[in-house]
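**User:** My hope is that you can spare some time for a protein that puzzles me. As I understand it, each token names a local backbone shape. I would be glad if you read both lines and explained how they fit together. The protein I mean follows directly.
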Amino acid sequence: MVTRTALTYIAGLTSLALVGQGGAVTPLEWGTGPLTVSALPRVVYTAHRGGAREVPENSMSGLVAAWKRGTAQVLDLDTRMLRDGTLVVMHDAALNRTTYTGGPVHALDRRDWQGIRLRPRAALPGSWPPERPPTLAEVLDRFGGRVVLTVEAKDPRSLGSLAAMIRERGLTRSVLVNSNRPATALRTHRMGLLSQLWRSARQMRTDRPEGWRPFVNVLDVDHRARDRDLVRAVRSGIPRVWAHTVVTPAQRDRALALGCDGIITDAPGRLGRAGRRH
């Protein structure tokens, strides 16, 4: 087999690649598996819910648009569990805010989900036709290994199913499982998955994040926190500290100046481009 070396650009990451006779490109950092968290750059940009100020949040078309744009190296999404155990991509416990219908998400099953349609916000740029919110399986199959994903488990009882889906696709080093609960982060770690723990500015006033160092891979901090609380998080020894949910250059620049090495943003198309100079 004849192999040549080439440069490839994937999800905002420029890297060397091996190109075989059939033209297939395999980034060197993948090895024999998918793109992993360890291959992320020093400063990371995450498209929060796909970039909720630029695309319909938690939609397949929005995630695809954010991925193709290449200004975010991580795609963030939320999951909830239907009554039959199906994991779907949805932030709220109710359908009212983001779809054309209402009622609790957990009251539906997979068949019901086929009839749900997202209602794009009028303020979004561009034209976005109504579409069905994806299932988690569809997102993992579309993006798994091609970009790092952050999946927030809104229902802690879904963690076992979520872990099984990640494992069976070989994505245990490529998907961060996010939660606001340290106990869920610890459980995630014990399952052999990568854990991401988010904390509000209020919680950060009394947090002692150094205690989470053994089991948290990414600490996801509120950019509105006091300087002293952000610095304490950065100095905790947790490998990565990312600030949420950033929407302006000033917010981004403050978080980076205080030592955060990741920006979680609703506007990755704007902030991600500008942020590449850091």
User: Anything to note?
Assistant: The chain is about 25% helix and 25% strand.
